[in-house]
Amino acid sequence: MTVFLLGSPLFAAVSPEPVLFFNRAGIKTLKERVASPAYKPTWDPILAYADGVCDPGSRHYADPVAFVEAARNTKEKNLTHMFPRRLSGWMETLSFAHAMTGKKKYKEHAIKLLHAGIDDAIVNVVNGSIYAGVRGDMMRALAIGLDYFSPLMTPEQRAPVVEAARKCMESLAEEFARPDSQWHAWTVPHNFSGVTGGAAGLLALVLREDFPDKSREWLGMAETIVLNWLDAAFEDKGANIEGVDYMQYGLGNALMLAEALARVEKRRAIIEHPKLKMVSYFLAMQILPGASGYEARNDSRYDSDRGESKGTGAPFLLLLASGFNDATRADPLAAWLWTQSRRADKNLMQIAWHHLGVEHLGSQVKSPAQLIPAPYGEHFKKRGLCVWRTGWAKDDTYFAIEAGHYIPVTHNQGDKGHFTLYGLGQRWAVDVGYGNNRDPKGRSQTVTHSCVLVDGKGQALSGGGLGTDGDVLDYINNNAFGYALIDAKSAYNKNDKDMPGVPVTKALRHAFYVRPSEGVPAYAVVLDDIEEEGAPHAFTWQMITWETMQVSEKDSGTFVVAPSGGSSQPRMVVRVSAATGLDLAHAPLELAGAPGIDPLKYIKLTATSQSTGNPRFAALLAPLPAGYRHDPALSVRKISQGTLVSIEWPGRIDRILWNGDKATLMNPVKPAK
């Protein structure tokens, strides 16, 4: 480590005031807050964790020596994604614990960990890494550590930490100054930008006294990175081009910076960004009915607000809900989402950002239906994501399908045209979640999605920096039904690196979501118009369902999917038709996992047609409430105008006229008595 003399400018002006979450004057208020019964459930786990971090006998003990040894003996990717993030969480917890209790052990152990964290084995790899997000993790750790512990360190203790911080900032600034660098090209829409830009701004704020001139430049750079990310990675209606998990990861640091900038510098450019103000709408359309988790598409999990105590995010919904602590700008939809979906993990920012008012606001909103006009549905065009829902209660349903263009370096999977369906308290047709690798049989590929395989092969290889393109050619949302027409031909043919997939000549998918009426529950119909030249081919229609479902095969082309628990449970009837005969099968789908990714098992339903041309799959997905006695029937027949797909319910027949790239839901008819 570099040793500095006492005359160094680094010791010239140590600010006695933390700025990121609170100042010294605010500590008294925070102490009163953590002593109150309302905050005890949040505060007690934080303090217990802080004790464990300092206790060699605890499973939570953070051993500075082992920390460095592990860093020196691990692979770069693991290093960059693990150590700075853990250090950030430790700094966060120990600084708050010391501020509230004054106990010496928290300060002493924090300083030891901070020095371990700036070991060359970590800092040099971080600054030389193309993993831009991990540089944000490190800068956040340094920012939080220096913000609170600077005046509590000796000059000799503080100097190497400031030097490590300077190296991180200068390395980023040098890259940012180059017009051809990743900060002006390939990482702009990636969550890396929110993570890194946000953390760089936090560190620039903390270093204002050490580098008065440079810190202003660094702060402007950081704010620009975040604003550029919001422009590139979000669309006007709030959807992020990556999955919900990565959106939250990027927003964590970015909104920590936004809150601090508004409070310390009176700068509100990030807070006032119009796309940021729509994020709560996007999440409201993505949350599962009657549940706390969000849709797991595109390398996400069935997860909620990632404001946990591990240093990987911030309770950003809390900030959006409170209007960044501005009562006149409170967002009631974000408040509802916060009260509905926050994690059980406790985070000090829940205390520092005083969320009781948000709890009250959230309790006033019984459902997003109070704030979002019906019919509930949206086409998030930049993502290519189409969603429809009946509402947000447990008995409501939600149907979605996606086919967007790949933006290089962002997360992507071979799932163009993949559909999901939730409702009645169940996960019927699901997404397998996080993959981000190129395993041909892994979570990122078509084989693990509700799409069609041709001779066992799917869309071109995706994940781990590869991606494919799809298009939404049409979208309808009205009081009677929703409709999307998906073109996945390009995704089957090749990926963005021209690696081949399946050379299909057509891959159109029509998706209907029929809203409930006249005693008929909501249901979906999926029609596949896919073909490959040459003969014969085995076309396999797939649907992925939840691990705990019981699946049975009935008459030709019919699956019944039901949760365990007997006849009092809801069920979903899945009927599949094809131009030629079908072979049905279902089997557990076991996928390699990653730490924290659960569940790892699903069930895959398949219907295979041996066809010399186009199998023309027609599939009915009908979730039926408990006690609903009649299973709908599906029939498909040729008529002069094309193909007539009929779904027969008691007292009503719904019909779809299907002719190639045209599919029209016709007025229902009453069956002859």
Structural write-up:
This protein has 17 helices and 21 strands. It has 673 residues and is α+β, with helices and mostly antiparallel strands. Strands 7-8-9-10-17-14-13-12 form an eight-stranded antiparallel beta sheet. The protein has a five-stranded antiparallel beta sheet with strand order 1-2-3-4-5, with no helix packed on it. It has a four-stranded antiparallel beta sheet with strand order 6-11-16-15, with no helix packed on it. Helix 5 runs antiparallel to helix 7, helix 9 runs antiparallel to helix 10 and helix 14 crosses helix 16.
Question: Key features?
Answer:
single chain; 673 residues; alpha+beta; 8-stranded antiparallel sheet; 5-stranded antiparallel sheet; 21% strand; elongated; disordered N terminus
What's the count of strands? Answer: 21
Q: How much of the residues is beta strand, in percent?
A: 15-25%
Read across the widest sheet, the strand sequence of neighbours is 7-8-9-10-17-14-13-12
Based on Cα principal axes, name the global outline: elongated
Radius of gyration: 27 Å
Span between N and C termini?
88 Å
Low-confidence stretches: 1-12
Largest sheet: 8 strands, antiparallel
With helices defined by DSSP (H or I, 4 residues minimum), what is the helix count? 17
The overall average pLDDT, rounded, is 90
**Structural classification:** alpha+beta
Helix amount:
25-40%
